[in-house]
Structures are given as C-alpha cells and as structure tokens.
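Exercise 7b. Backbone tokens:
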C-alpha cells in the first residue's frame, strides 16, 4: 500500500482551514503526515494555527 503525506501552505487562514483539517483527519485514510505551513500570516491569524 502506498503511503503519502498532505502539505497545506496557509497564508492568513480562517475557520475554513480548521474545517478542512478536521475533514481530512476524519475522512481520508492511509496518509502518514499532515503538515501545515504558516506562510507568513498576520498575528491576527495565529489563533487558527494554535487551535490546530
């Protein structure tokens, strides 16, 4: 079975990113890693990364 990872670069994310990550974790099987990259988001968006 092939293994794979998911890379999500995010710039100033909102609640949609949180929803997407939860959907991936609950519905996508057989991935080994989920990596979120803060692409220089504003301080006001850091709460999204902290929640995730």
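Sequence design result:
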């Amino acid at each position: 079975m092939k293994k794979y990872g998911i890379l999500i670069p995010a710039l100033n994310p909102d609640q949609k990113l949180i929803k997407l990550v939860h959907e991936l974790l609950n519905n996508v099987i057989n991935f080994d890693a989920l990596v979120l990259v803060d692409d220089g988001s504003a301080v006001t968006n850091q709460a999204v990364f902290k929640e995730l």
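Instructor comment: The chain has two helices and two strands. The chain has a mean pLDDT of 93.
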